[in-house]
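Deliverable D2.4 — example input (structure tokens):
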């Protein structure tokens, strides 16, 4: 029997919608028997993306330095910008977070995986088993900042009571994270989708970093 998560009514196994309230039954999802990605493999993917962020930060810093040197030589920025870019800046922090959001949005919305998820063999899909969409990717990306609270305990608690191992961002975005090998071939995006998503995601992140550094040095 399928129990409705909303009203608690028991429904036959083949039911798609609850006979009591009409809510779609999550257990009717075509991916219910697939191997869902657990908390720790997803945490490892985040760590890989975090390490990748250092490389992106280095590239962004070099590009910002070159641009600032050109602007300084042209007289658009006063001398001493080399010292002004040091230290904490709330604006730069905000631009960095925005870049991180764009990175995950582009990678997961276009292909279903960031570099970290690709390395770990997991991918984001829609609840219906179809490829992930931009809307779902945006919602789960923004909700990560809630799920990651208390070292991920908030997201872990949601995954522990979810049939599809969904953190709150997945529940709200109607997405799930599966092992790539478990995803149907018709729902798999091509390597070119990954290259496109990574290129756009990294590009947006670098633009955000360069913008933040230039504004800080102005």
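Example output (designed residues):
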């Amino acid at each position: 029997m399928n129990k409705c998560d909303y009203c608690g009514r028991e429904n036959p196994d083949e039911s798609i919608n609850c006979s009591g309230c009409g809510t779609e039954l999550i257990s009717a999802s075509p991916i219910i028997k697939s191997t869902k990605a657990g908390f720790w493999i997803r945490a490892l993917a985040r760590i890989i993306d975090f390490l990748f962020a250092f490389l992106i930060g280095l590239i962004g810093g070099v590009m910002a330095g070159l641009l600032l040197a050109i602007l300084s030589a042209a007289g658009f920025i006063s001398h001493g910008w080399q010292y002004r870019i040091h230290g904490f800046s709330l604006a730069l922090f905000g631009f960095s977070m925005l870049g991180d959001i764009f990175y995950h949005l582009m990678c997961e919305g276009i292909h279903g995986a960031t570099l970290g998820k690709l390395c770990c063999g997991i991918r984001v899909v829609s609840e219906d088993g179809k490829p992930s969409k931009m809307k779902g990717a945006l919602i789960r990306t923004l909700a990560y900042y809630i799920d990651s609270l208390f070292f991920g305990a908030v997201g872990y608690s949601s995954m522990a009571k979810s049939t599809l191992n969904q953190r709150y961002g997945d529940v709200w975005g109607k997405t799930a994270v599966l092992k790539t090998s478990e995803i149907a071939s018709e729902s798999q995006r091509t390597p070119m989708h990954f290259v496109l998503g990574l290129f756009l995601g990294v590009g947006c992140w670098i633009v955000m970093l360069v913008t933040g550094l230039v504004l800080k040095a102005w």
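The longest strand covers residues 122-126.
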